[in-house]
Amino acid sequence: MKILIVEDDSAIVELVSLCLRVSWPDARILFTSLAEEGIEIAERENPDLVILDLGLPDRSGLEVLKEVRHNSNVPIIILTVRDEEADVVRGLELGADDYITKPFRQMEFVSRAKALLRRQHAADSSGPTTIGQFHFSASRRQVNCAGKTLKLTTTEGKILHNLAQNAGKPVSHGDLSLAIWGEMPPDAANSIRVHMRNLRQKLSDAGLENVIMTKSGAGYFLKK
Question: Which domain-ending residue is among 120, 143, 163?
Fold first, then answer.
């Protein structure tokens, strides 16, 4: 397994690397302090997970996020000191799968990284699903409808996969949180709302209007 860390604070790189090696001792840890080099490494090495800071010396981490996400569905965790709601929403809207602020709790960080990789592996081993007028491949994180192909982020794919498994039945924020992260982080509900808005917009752009519905007090459900 390969994990890319794009971070300009050497102490954070060392701490994150230590956390990751405890859980994945055989992992190959790649790191850089530069945004441009991070983009190049992500494209060349095709990592299994990216840990990304936003405050980089040459370019914004959000620019890295946009470019990496454009070319890959790799799970991306933003790890930053920026804790304003606008920054969190922007990061998630641009395709980050999780957003963790510094200083961070090491065990929680590892747990959330594990959850992303575990859910990705589960999706990779599942077959395609047909719901109404569209086909969804969890392994490729793609939706096909009327000749159009939509690329989803890892988290968007997990949300749609979970809704597809429970088609017609409401899935709560708590259940979606467990499916995505394996736990209920304090900011889970807001994060899910942002990911859900992005997912709905992608489906809408492909002509799939009102596929994901909201049932007040119960959660989200996929129309059969």
Answer: 120
